[in-house]
Amino acid sequence: MARYILLLILLSFTTISNAQADRQLVRNGNRMFSMQEYDKAEVQYRKAVSVNPTNPQALYNLGCALMMQNKDSAAIVQYQKAAKHEKNKLRLASVYHNIGVICQNHKMYKEAINAYEQSLRNNPKDDETRYNLALCKRMQKNGNKPQNRNKDNENNKQQKNKDRNNEKEKDNNKQAQPKEQMSKDNAEQLINAAIQNEKATQQRLKKAMQKPGARKSSDKNW
């Protein structure tokens, strides 16, 4: 994770008017930055840099504002300028940390490793930078294989699901055929039974009509 800790500047009674001007512009930029108006903060920081091109706080904060707008290449330029003028080791560590983050996001692992190592030289106690450094070294060594392995696993999983669905479809087809045949057999059995019943009924009626004294139906009404 990149660091966006803006550097606050205290006014000195002995500073000249130009120094006061660029520090005030940095303050204005910090206010815009805290309001997430990064484009406006960028304008203020650029004004501060134009007044004092060697102000490391203005350069660093300008890099942060550019980074928040995804202007990564421009941000690195400002971070590199800030590194040339920054004397405070902790702030210098933050400069290199952010350079490392940008390079890591663009999979420039060699450059990211160099930046993180520079950051740790200035702040050896920074666990976050140490973790990012170890991650970049592993990614560089593996040639980004973990992502490919995940992709292969996903492809294998999809193929297995496809094969499983095909097998299931085959089983369903196998089960459907006997059911269809059974329905046909049942229908034939029912038809045959109906025919036999009809023949038996006709034979009974025929026998009944042949018996002596059998009465025929009458058309008269009672």
Task: Provide structural commentary.
With 222 residues, the chain is mostly helical. 77% of the residues lie in helices and 0% in strands. The longest helix has 66 residues, at 145-210. The radius of gyration is 44 Å and the shape is globular. It starts with 16 loop residues before the first helix and ends in a 12-residue tail after the last helix.
Query: Helix count?
Result: 8
Largest beta-sheet details:
none
Shape: globular
Derived from helix and strand composition plus strand pairing, the structural class reads mainly alpha
How far is it from the N-terminal to the C-terminal residue, by CA? 108 Å
Secondary-structure element order, as H and E? HHHHHHHH
Which bin fits the share of residues in helices?
A: over 70%
Number of strands: 0
Query: What is the residue-averaged pLDDT?
Result: 75
Low-pLDDT stretches? 9-15, 146-151, 171-184, 208-222
Query: What fraction strand?
Result: under 5%
